[in-house]
Amino acid sequence: MPASVPGRAASILSILALALLAAACARPEAPPAPAEAIAIADDPHSFARPEEVRVTHLALDLTVDFEARTLSGRASLTVDNPAGARELVLDTRGLEIAAVTLGDGSAAAFALGDEIAGQEFLGRPLTIAIEPDAEVVHVDYATRPGAAALQWLDPAQTAGGERPFLYTQSQPILARTWVPCQDSPGVRMTYEATVRVPEGLIAVMSAENPTAEQAGGVYRFSMPQPVPSYLLALAVGDLGFEPLGAASGVYAEPATLPAAAWELADTPQMIDAAERLYGPYRWGRYDLLVLPPSFPFGGMENPRLTFATPTILAGDRSLVALVAHELAHSWSGNLVTNANWNDFWLNEGFTTYFEGRIMEALYGEEYAEMLAALALGELRATIEEMGADAPDTRLHLDLAGRDPDEGMNDVAYEKGRFFLRTLERAVGRERWDAFLADYFDRFAFQTMTSAAFLDHLRRELLTPEEAERIGLERWVYEPGLPDNLVAPTSERFAAVDAERQAWLDGGAAAELPTAAWTTHEWLRFLRGLPDSLPPARLAELDQAFRLTASGNAEIQAAWFRLAVAAGYRPAYPALEEFLIRVGRRKFLAPLYGALAATPEGKAWALGVYERARPGYHAVSRGTIDEILGWEEGAETRASA
Ligand code: BES
Ligand code: ZN
How far does the centroid of ligand 1 lie from the alpha carbon of residue 408, in Å? Predict the structure, then answer.
C-alpha cells in the first residue's frame, strides 16, 4: 500500500479486502505472475489502491462547453476486483461529482476525502462503495473552469483568431483534474470516448482519430492498447490534417498547417529509423498535433498523437529533434513505463538516448553529437546551479510529499542519456542495441523501476566486472555527474568556441565566419558568452546578425537571456512580444528568472507578466508565479 500518502486512514473494509487479496494470491488457481513482471510500485502521488481493485478500461462521454469552460458527462470504469474488495478509490482534483452508479444502474455511495495540507496538488480521493462483483462503475461529473490540465483559449489566442481552442496536458498528475481515474503511471487501461463539441470544431485524442470533421460535432475514439492515465489527451479546435506518409500526418490550425507539414516532413523516415533500431512501432498511426503557442511544453508523447509546440516551426527543420524525442517515447515511456514519478528518468533518459540515435540515423553522427554536446552543456549548467550534491541531481528521485513537477529537470533527460551512452560504450553498440530491443519487447505494456532495470542489466547484459567498472549504483542513486561520462566531441563546436574567444578578445563581429552556421552553432556561440558583456557589444552582434529579429525560438531564447543579463534594451520590445505570445515553460523560466535578478528587471517583468499570464497554461503559470513571487489577485502590484 502506498503508505507514503499520509493522512489516509485504512478502512476496515480495505483491510478486509487486503486479507482477501492475500488469500486469493495463495489459491493455486490464481494465475502466476509472469517471471519478468514488475510489481506495482507504491506511488506516493496517487490515492488509488490498484493492488486491490484495478481499473482496466475507461469509457468517457463528455460534452465540451466553451462558454462555461467545462467538460461534463460520464466516466465509466471497468474494474478488475480479484479479491472482491468493497471500495474503489479514484484520484480527483477539483471535479464536481454528481452521481456514482454501478453497472446494474444502482446508486453507489461515495465520498470525497480531504486534501492533504501542503499536498493540495494531489487532489482528493474519491472512495466508492462497490459490490464485490461489480464490473463497471459510472461517475457522472464535471470539471471546473480552473481545471489545471485544461487550457481554454479564446479565439484571439489562436492562429486563426476566429474559433476557441481547448487542449489537455495530463502528465504527470493532472489527468485527475479532468477524469476521475487511478492516476498513477503503474495502472494501465484501454479507453474509448465520445466527445461532443460545438459545430465546426474538430476533436482529437491520444487514440484512433478521425481526420475530418464529423457531422453534429460528435467524435468517437478508441485506444485499444492499455495506457496509463498521464497519456490521456484531448484537443478541440479548428483543425486541419495533412498526411506526411502512409501512417503519419499532422493536425494544426489551417493557418499553421502548411508550415507544420513542411517542417515535419521527415517524420516517416524517423519512424522507419526507430523501428530499425528497437523494433516495431506498436501503436498503429503516428500523428502530430501542432498546438497554439501557449502549450507549456515542447512536446508531449500522447500515444498515436504527439502534442507539439509551434515554436519548433523554425522554417529550416533545425528543431525536429523534438519529433524524434516524442516518437521515441512510443517505446520508452508509452510501452515500458516508469512505475512512479521517482523513476521519471526511465521514461525521459531512455527517450533522450533513443532520440539521439534517431537523429544520428537520419542526419549523421556529426549532427547528433552536436546536439548531445549542446545538451551536456545545459546539463552541466543545471547541476552547477543546483549543486553537485543536490538530491534532485540523482536519477532515482524522492518526490514523495512534493509536486512531482518540481523535481523534473534535465537531469532525468541528460544524465539518463549519458548513463545509457556509458553502457553502450562499455559493451559495444551491437550488444547494447540487441539488449535494448529485447527490453522494449519483453517489458512492453508494463512498468519499470530503477531497481528492476539494474537487476535486468546485471542478468542480461553485464558481467559483474563490467557492472563494477561502470558504477551502476553511482549513476542511478548518487547525485552529480560520474567521472566516467563520455563527453561528445564536435570539431565544428571547437571552431565556434575559438571564434567566440577571438570575438571576446576584441575581434569584429563582421569577422565571425557565420555564413555556414546552423541553429546549433549559433546556440553554442550564444550560450558560451558571458553574462557580463557590455550592451554595446551585444549591439554589435545584433547589427551584424539581426539576432533580435530571429524567428528561431531557441535562438531567441538564448539571445534574450543574454540581452537581459547585459541590460541590452533594444531587444526588449521583441522580448516582450515573445513572452506574451509563447507559453513554453522551458523558454519562459530562464527569461523571467534573469529579469527577476534586478529590481528594474523584475518591475518590467511583472508588467509584462500581468498581460501574458492569462494566456499561459496553469503549468507555466505555477512556475512563473513562483519566480516572480506573484500572488493571485495582487495584479495591481505590477503597476504600483
Ligand atoms: N513527457 C515530456 C513532457 C513532460 C515532462 C510533461 C514532465 C510533463 C511532465 C516530453 O516528452 C518532453 O520531454 N518534452 C520536452 C521536449 C524534448 C525534446 C526534450 C519539452 O517539452 O521540452
Ligand atoms: Zn520526453
Answer: 10
Q: What angle do CA 33, 38, 44 make, to 5 degrees?
A: 125
Testing ligand 1's pocket by substitution, the residue of 270, 331, 348 carrying the most ligand atoms inside 8 A of its CB is: 348
Q: Whole-angstrom Cα distance, residue 428 to residue 409?
A: 29
CA distances 142 to 61, 199, 607, Å, are: 11, 21, 35
Given a contact cutoff of 8 angstroms between Cβ atoms, the answer to whether 30 and 24 are in contact is: yes
Cα of 128 vs centre of ligand 1, distance in Å, is 34
Active site residues: 326, 413
Q: Choose one of 291, 297, 348 to mutate for the ligand 1 pocket test, by most ligand atoms within 8 angstroms of C-beta.
A: 297
- N-term to C-term CA, the chain: 51
Q: Check if 322 has its Cβ closer than 6 Å to any atom of ligand 1.
A: yes
Question: What pLDDT digit, counting tens, does each position of 77-98 carry?
Answer: 999 999 999 999 999 999 999 9
C-alpha cell at 120: 493540495
Find the helix or strand (DSSP H, E) in which 188 lies. Answer: strand 188-196
Helix (H) / strand (E) element for 317: namely none
> What is the strand order of the sheet 150-153 is part of?
150-153, 165-168, 234-237, 202-205
Ligand 1 binding pocket includes 404 (Cβ within 6 Å): no
Taking the centre of ligand 1 as the mean of its atom positions, its distance from the CA of residue 476, in whole angstroms, is: 20
Rg (CA), the chain: 25
Picking from 281, 294, 370, the residue whose alpha carbon sits closest to that of residue 327 is: 281
Determine the 3-state secondary structure of 501 from DSSP.
helix
The residues that bridge with 223 in the sheet, in sequence order, are 191
Q: Is the CB of 586 under 6 A from ligand 1?
A: yes
Q: Is the pLDDT of residue 486 over 80?
A: yes
What is this structure's pTM? 0.93
- Whether the Cβ atoms of residue 330 and residue 299 lie closer than 8 Å to each other: no
Give the 3-state secondary structure of residue 54.
strand
Count how many Cα atoms sit within 13 Å of the Cα of residue 519 in the half-sphere of its side chain: 21
* Dist CA 639 CA 625 (whole Å): 16
Question: Is residue 622 lining ligand 1, measured as CB closer than 6 Å?
Answer: no
Distance between CA atoms of residues 205 and 168, nearest Å? 10
Nearest CA to ligand 1 atom 3: 300
For 348-379, how does the pLDDT look when each residue is reduced to its tens digit (9 = 90+)? Answer: 999 999 999 999 999 999 999 999 999 999 99
Look up cell 497554461; give the residue: 617
The answer to whether residue 34 scores a pLDDT higher than 80 is: no
Ligand closest in space to the Cα of 375:
1
Alpha helices (H) in 364-471, listed in sequence order: 365-386, 410, 416-427, 429-442, 450-460, 464-470
